[in-house]
Amino acid sequence: MTTGKSVLFLVYILCFIILITSCDNDVTGQEPIVTEPDPEPVPEEPSCLESGTHTDINELLTAENVIVELCPGSVFELSDRIVINHPGQQIYTQGRPVDNTRTVRKIVSASLSSPVIMRDFDYAVLSHVIVNGNRPELGYKGGDALIYVGGSSMRTSNSIC
Predict the structure, then answer these.
(1) Which of 60, 61, 76, 104 is the most exposed place for a label (fewest CB within 10 A)?
(2) Residue ranges of the domains in the chain?
């Protein structure tokens, strides 16, 4: 009987070894080994529009209630008008600063007298920007104001410009 007990004992030991080696790492208290490579980081797009021209801003003004947020410290050179063309459109500097970090819109064309037109559309907003007429370089130009606001619109706002 000793041989039978010895064989039975060896079978139990063998089963125990198989059970232990087939267990998941979590059962043993060890952290699982990760073999997958880390995914490549996706570059974040800025949540604001960086420097450019009037075209870059106008291309975003495509529907009602569009908000065009401009990056602080950015400069947009204007050779043509920025036109609010739907109700509720807003253009402002990100964070709405009141200092010199506001976005600058600088006229670069001597024939442009009103670089921002925001009339006849309700709830249009232009705020926290600097509109630079560039008079030292271009001289005085007759015509309408740098920012043409109003017309037959309600609650149009132009602030801290």
Answers:
(1) 60
(2) 52-159
